[in-house]
Design goal:
Distance between the termini: 65 Å
Structural class: alpha/beta
Radius of gyration: 28 Å
Bound molecules: alpha-D-glucopyranose
Strand content: 15-25%
Oligomer: single chain
Shape: globular
Number of strands: 27
Amino acid sequence: MKRTLIAAFTMMTAITLLAQPLSTEQKIEALLSKMTLTEKIGQMNQLTGLGLSGDMTHRIKEGRVGSILNEITLETVNELQRIAVEETRLGIPLIFCRDVVHGFKTIFPIPLGQAATWNPQIAYNGARVAALEATSVGIRWTFAPMIDVSRDPRWGRIAESCGEDPYLTSRMGEAMVKGFQTDDLTNPTAMAACAKHFAAYGASESGKDYSTTWVPEVQLRDVYFPPFEAAVKAGSATFMCSFNDINGVPSSGSQFLNKQVLRKEWNWDGVLVSDWGSIEQMIPHGYSANLKQAAEQAANAAVDVDMMGHAYESHLENLVAEGKVDIKDIDQMVRNVLRLKFRLNLFDQPYAKVHQAPYDVKAMQQAKEAALEGAVLLTNNGILPISPSIKSIAVVGPLANSGRDQVGTWCFDAEPKHSVTPLMDIKARYGSSINIIEALGLSYSREKNPVAVKKAVATASKADVVLFFAGEEAVLSGEARCRADISLPGDQLEMLKQLKSKGKRVILIIMAGRPLTIEQEASLADAVIYSFHGGTMAGPALIDLIFGLASPSGKLPVTLPKMVGQVPIYYNCKNTGRPSSDVTLIDDIAVGAEQTSIGFTSYHLDAGTGPLFPFGYGLSYTTFSYGPVVLSAPELSMDGKLVATCKITNTGKVKAQEVVQLYTRDLVGTLVRPIKELKGFQKISLNPGESKVVTFTILPQDLAYCHPDMVMRPEVGVFQLWIAPSSQSGEPVSFILQN
Ligand code: GLC
């Protein structure tokens, strides 16, 4: 009797289990158990689109390709997918990937410009629009967000970053992850995000791309890791290695980064892809003697996918046979790839279809909002906003009508003909009521053309006011586009000087992929608006601001230096033992002055101490007053929380947004601490005369930093706290963190 009951129970259990759908992990195991080593390595191989070439289709049929990048024709994508699903032994679908960084067709401001909005919703919107357009051609994996903290404007890829601060980068990066992925990766409009480049790529020595980095582990953990950990928490499905070596070890071979931190400490189960050829590049790094050793080092450093390095497809089978790479590690990496494909629901829905046509009205409006909120008003002597009753306006400069350059770097699929440039927009909207005088002068940012400049200045001099759209061509920023001199290229400064010598009132609007050194330009111009390559709708956004249809609300996500010799210069720096206060500048030193005559503190004789414009800075068409900061208590215990409030009032005449920033300073630490650290921000909108009490809650963990034992923890002591409109304003209040 008892045996019968047990048998019946066992049978019922088996039937129940068989009736239940397999979990993803069970499906992975079932598939993995059937795969040959060649097919497993195939999943780890990512090749660039070769269309329907025989070589590509042949490799797919043999199960030797797991993902394909840069294929963006829907029909080709679906045909390649059909071959993978219907003409291979196991029918494992491909993933199609692309760098959809700040837009696919509808281009948003470059990430640095999106960071200047200090509005994560803007970043979310941009990523969502990009995903809707890119998944419509079959792209389900984007290589974004790029969340490398960058303090060096010489580095071309600062354009793709969210600037110099870990906290702001973290908030913007997580919003982009959510925008690309939504909360459900099976959604056919979802694209797997890729947190890149892991790690410390922005610390490239001398601002040269691919250069070496020397970063102490405590600084990795305090500055460079936080945005990536935030991306893990936001659910980023993939990560990408960085090209650089960190302290002598290239990221693609770093077991510390990829196993210790990413997998063990952060318990992350996504796909880690190399950068383009970064495994192979460990040979010129001098870390690998040959491609076989590079493959061995990368596989043993848990790099799941080899992007265009041909290292895995060439050597992994032999490395496994020789016992240099454990098949268990291969299986684990293949699990990660299969998991991503299951999460994207590619086994059930492998084929793509159009979800949203490019340049959708709402998308273009959101792109304009992003450009609006990302523009930073640096100076204004009262000339802005200009009145639509003005009689004549001259439009000059190489960025006035360049649909290609205003969208910036990393927008392979942008179509310049869809860009709305400032010249196009001002003519369309105001051309019937204002005499718009077109005198670009320079046709591209690097142009040196005294004759053209002179002629344009003469023409523009007839106007009541001059709008000078200056900056950088898109090609001067982005990957491998580093500059040792970060001034305005070509004859742009010369043109501004000539306009001012004619007594003209000039509004300078800069569109660039990095901070530029514009000290002279800022002193000459009557107003300066700084826009980090604002995207498809940069024109309408800037013209709205110029005519006051909206007030500027952008704040700098990165420091603007006076001169490149100050670099690296960033707000969250250390105080040093001899901080400078009053300084004697080079031209003020008396001839014959003695060595000991002008003090000994930390500054440059020819630049002084601070930047031209600091992190977090940006003006408005209104003014805001900040009341005193009020703390809920004078101390914060390790198990408590501190509430800080401040009343902000719009004391001007126009409605505007303000980015209210929270900074703290740990006055004394086991390791010296920065003079300020951004710990929060809120973007608020106030009508004239309106006030709002802004509240921040600070927890002890918000004050944590990496100690010599590599543990992140807060430390008791006296702190200062600011609630302010920039990193260089406001008065601090103090509190004590205690046990
Ligand atoms: C590039 C970039 C990386 C990009 C990849 C694919 O070299 O470093 O950011 O995602 O190759 O295009």
